[in-house]
């Protein structure tokens, strides 16, 4: 079973709350309740980083359609069996940079949270529309007792469709030519 959903988001602080709600509803509709908690945290971090670093100040970016100047961010969710790929597209050119925050800093830990919860994460190479930062999450155990590894062929087809419709190269980002790919060892 596979599915795909995309939501434009405003370039305002309320975008993270909206993204969490949309993610929760979508994953529940897809019967992926066991992924709701971790995925909403990851999506919130992705949107927060896009708001902080992906909206170029003083310029009029060309966001990736169906995003617009009023809603310059896109949240995309793709699922295949018991896995979810979530991505946030922003019009910025800066790629994520994991840094070690000071012990008493209130921010700067978002990518560490992403690394802890996601099986893989990375970003697409920025182009005229910006970039996507993505994370792959998977349920630990299948419900039917079958193999835990999802069938990636349907997911690959969905990503190819996204590639054709949107422009930024998710397929390259998921492969060895990515700007960065981080794997979580379980």
UniProtKB/TrEMBL annotation:
InterPro entries: Anti-sigma-factor_SerPK, HATPase_C_sf, HATPase_dom. It holds the Pfam family HATPase_c_2. GO terms for molecular function: ATP binding; protein serine/threonine kinase activity. Residues 13-134 form the Histidine kinase/HSP90-like ATPase domain. It comes from the Bacteria. Keywords: ATP-binding, Kinase, Nucleotide-binding, Serine/threonine-protein kinase, Transferase. CDD domains: HATPase_RsbW-like (cd16936). This is ATP-binding protein.
């Amino acid at each position: 079973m596979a599915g795909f959903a995309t939501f434009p988001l405003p370039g305002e602080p309320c975008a993270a709350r909206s993204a969490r709600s949309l993610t929760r509803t979508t994953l529940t509709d897809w019967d992926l309740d066991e992924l709701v908690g971790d995925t909403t945290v990851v999506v919130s971090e992705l949107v927060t980083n896009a708001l902080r670093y992906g909206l170029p100040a003083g310029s009029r970016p060309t966001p990736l359609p169906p995003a617009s100047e009023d809603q310059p961010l896109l949240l995309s969710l793709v699922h295949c069996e018991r896995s979810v790929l979530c991505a946030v597209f922003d019009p910025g050119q800066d790629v994520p940079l994991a840094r070690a925050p000071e012990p008493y800093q209130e921010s700067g830990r978002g990518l560490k949270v992403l690394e802890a919860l996601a099986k893989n994460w990375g970003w697409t190479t920025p182009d005229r529309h910006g970039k996507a930062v993505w994370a792959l999450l998977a349920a630990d155990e299948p419900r039917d007792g079958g193999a835990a590894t999802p069938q990636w062929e349907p997911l690959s087809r969905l990503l190819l469709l996204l590639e054709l419709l949107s422009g930024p190269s998710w397929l390259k980002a998921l492969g060895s030519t990515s700007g960065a790919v981080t794997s979580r060892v379980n």
